[in-house]
Amino acid sequence: MSRESLLGEMEDVHRKLTELGHEYWLRYDLFAPQWWLLLAALILPWIVWWRLVDRARLKDILLFGISIAFIVFLLDHIGYELNLWIYPHKLFRFIPEMTAIDMGMLPVLHMLVYQYFPKWRSFLIAETIMGAVFAFVLEPVSVWIDLYEMLNWHHFYSFPLYVAKSALVKGGLEALLRRGGRRVAAPS
To answer: Known NCBIfam families for this protein (predicted)?
Structure first.
């Protein structure tokens, strides 16, 4: 098969998939109970975070959270593209990832752990507990309520990723702050 014909076939399949995805989202996602749950999971954590965030450390905490959100979104996209998992319900039609969790719940919870547990030992303990809750409680619940479907994945694979990504971001951020001549801020 030539490059042009293969590309043409890919475009046709993509066009059809886009049409089917749009129809599915309008018919089964938009305003369904799962859609409202995803909307709440995107907005409510940020409201809680704004009430709890240490304003004196806002820049550092927000940089940590944005870095976490980027990594989570990237890993989620890679897993989706590799057919490791899919999401039967989406908040936004054109974004296949679990946006409410990737941009809401996970970054906010990681930022709160970063804020309240500044020492490495307590940070890693808190992140390990949070990773276990997400991998072994919230992921199975998400499967049960039809928000998440594992194709070639298992909850045990998720657990180390929850902890590792936050440890990498904390280590990287602290190294950047030290290199820039700033002391790593302790909680007020």
So the answer is: CBO0543_fam
